[in-house]
């Protein structure tokens, strides 16, 4: 999706409805600064606001996401293009999230080990050593859990038995045997357990 094009389209539609940025913001229950960010292409409207925004501007969501009014004769083609673009955008976002997962996991382990090393080798009171180890452990566990949540939701797991791609529950990801991003889980489609590999695209 072209944020600049969508922003210009919102501005044109707003002016056609004789609305200022402040009036549009008031109608949507947001700040006029948010409207300004949309119109300058710095951000997109939140999905929770899209239907209400389209209603105020008298356009369809399809029009909004394309940044232009779509003629009925072109509707199906434009819809397919939008679906493909959204799929590509999700893949890009998932790749970025999986990279972030690695960074978070590494930093969590470094922090945990760092606190333990300080507690072991720096002279201090025993109670302070215990506190440092507990804090390091807590930060490490929170970071690793957050990284696991990213791994669960970004992309899909592909069943080796039937080829089905799916998003498992957090509990499955947490307790499954694994090496790297390959986990031994049960497929929700064929109900067989196999080593399932993380994949970005959905077949």
Mean pLDDT: 89
Instruction: Report low-confidence residues grouped into runs of 5 or more.
Output: none
CATH class of the largest domain: Mainly Alpha
H/E topology pattern: HHHHHHHEEHEEE
Gap between N and C termini: 22 Å
| Beta-strand content estimate | 5-15%
* Spatial order of strands in the largest sheet: 2-1-5-4-3
Itemize the secondary structure elements and their pairings:
Elements: H1 3-16, H2 21-28, H3 32-39, H4 47-57, H5 61-66, H6 75-121, H7 126-153, E1 156-158, E2 165-166, H8 170-175, E3 178-179, E4 182-186, E5 193-199
Antiparallel strand pairs: 1-2, 1-5, 3-4, 4-5
Helix pairs in contact: 2-3, 6-7
Describe this structure in words.
The protein has 203 residues and is of the alpha+beta class. It has 8 helices and 5 strands. Helix 6 packs antiparallel against helix 7. It starts with a helix and ends with a strand. The mean pLDDT is 89.
Observed structural traits:
203 residues, 434 Repressor (Amino-terminal Domain), 5-stranded antiparallel beta sheet, 63% helix
Brief digest:
With 203 residues, this protein is an alpha+beta fold. The protein has helices spanning 3-16, 21-28, 32-39, 47-57, 61-66, 75-121, 126-153, 170-175, and strands spanning 156-158, 165-166, 178-179, 182-186, 193-199.
């Amino acid at each position: 999706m072209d944020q600049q094009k969508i922003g210009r389209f919102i501005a044109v539609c707003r002016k056609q409805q004789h609305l200022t940025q402040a009036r549009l913001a008031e109608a949507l229950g947001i700040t006029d600064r948010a409207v300004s960010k949309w119109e300058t292409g710095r951000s997109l409207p939140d999905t929770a606001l899209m239907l209400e925004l389209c209603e105020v501007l008298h356009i369809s969501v399809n029009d909004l996401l394309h940044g232009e009014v779509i003629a009925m004769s072109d509707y199906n083609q434009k819809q397919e293009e939008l679906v493909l673009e959204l799929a590509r955008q999700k893949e890009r976002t998932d790749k970025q999230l999986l990279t972030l997962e690695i960074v978070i996991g590494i930093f969590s382990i470094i922090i945990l080990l760092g606190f333990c090393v300080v507690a072991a080798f720096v002279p201090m009171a025993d109670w302070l050593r215990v506190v440092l180890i507990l804090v390091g452990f807590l930060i490490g566990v929170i970071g690793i859990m957050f990284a696991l949540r990213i791994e669960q939701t970004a992309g899909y797991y592909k069943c080796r038995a039937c080829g089905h791609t799916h998003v498992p529950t957090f509990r499955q990801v947490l307790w499954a045997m694994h090496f790297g991003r390959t986990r031994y889980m049960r497929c929700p489609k064929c109900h067989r357990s196999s080593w399932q590999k993380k994949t970005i695209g959905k077949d």
